[in-house]
Amino acid sequence: SQQGEEDPQALSIQEGENATMNCSYKTSINNLQWYRQNSGRGLVHLILIRSNEREKHSGRLRVTLDTSKKSSSLLITASRAADTASYFCATDQGAQKLVFGQGTRLTINP
Amino acid sequence: SQTIHQWPATLVQPVGSPLSLECTVEGTSNPNLYWYRQAAGRGLQLLFYSVGIGQISSEVPQNLSASRPQDRQFILSSKKLLLSDSGFYLCASQTGGAKNIQYFGAGTRLSVL
Q: What is the least distance, in Å, from the CA of A22 to any CA of chain B?
């Protein structure tokens, strides 16, 4: 399968803690993106990291990319109840389309 | 940014009935358009994508078809629904360039009974 794999499949933490999600993929990429999906809704783009970048920040989000290991991680710092959602990585492998992972379901407990 | 309109939000259909889901895009021109299906608690399965009017690429052989009659309109259809067609259907738009970021509609939850 070309799809990426994310782990953990589910993560439950206390509000204020940091949440880390990982994504692995199988082929060379142009960029890797992270999306968020609230229950029963569409996906929303969070952040993009290019293949020649190693780390990127956006607010409370920090993304790393290791192309030698074909893996990425998404760190959400100082989590809030509103961060409860599913998070998906997606790789741009060319060919006009993205390949999405299976997602990590994050629950922030107040 | 782009706005993706999908309707209806929820649909319950009997087995063997036809289907038509419509997606329209505002705020961009000449987008790539995508139909995904998502099973409960799972990732996205790409069904069809289109890089222009009348151009459809099918990713998975199935009971569904897609059409793009206008630049910013993408339609997902079936002549006879199967139970296995149940799921959450998402339309997405992507404008070309160095950043292939996709914008998603709110989705249609289809239950085939």
A: 15
User: Going by DSSP bridges, is the β-strand pair A10-14/A104-109 parallel, antiparallel, or unpaired?
Assistant: parallel
Q: Alpha-carbon distance B6 to B90, whole Å?
A: 8
Tell me how far apart the alpha carbons of residues B96 and B55 are, in angstroms, rounded to a whole number. 16
| Chain A residues inside the 8 Å CB shell of B34 | 97
Residue found under tokens 């509103």: A82
Cα A15 from chain centre? 19
| Residue recorded with tokens 């994310």 | A6
* Distance, CA of B89 to CA of A70 (rounded, Å): 29
Whether A41 has its CB under 8 Å from any CB of chain B: the answer is yes
pLDDT at B96: 65
Per-residue pLDDT of chain B (113 residues; tens, 9 = 90+): 789 999 999 999 999 999 999 999 999 989 999 999 998 888 899 999 999 999 999 988 688 999 999 999 999 999 999 999 999 999 999 986 656 899 999 999 999 99
Instruction: Say whether B43 and A101 touch across the interface (CB within 8 A).
Output: yes
> What is the side-by-side order of every strand in the sheet holding A19-24?
A5-7, A19-24, A71-76, A61-66, A55-58
| Class of residue B9 by CB neighbours under 10 A (exposed 0-12, middle 13-18, buried 19+) | exposed
Are the CB atoms for B45 and B106 separated by under 8 Å? no
The upper half-sphere exposure of residue A33, i.e. CA atoms within 13 Å in the direction of its Cβ, equals 21
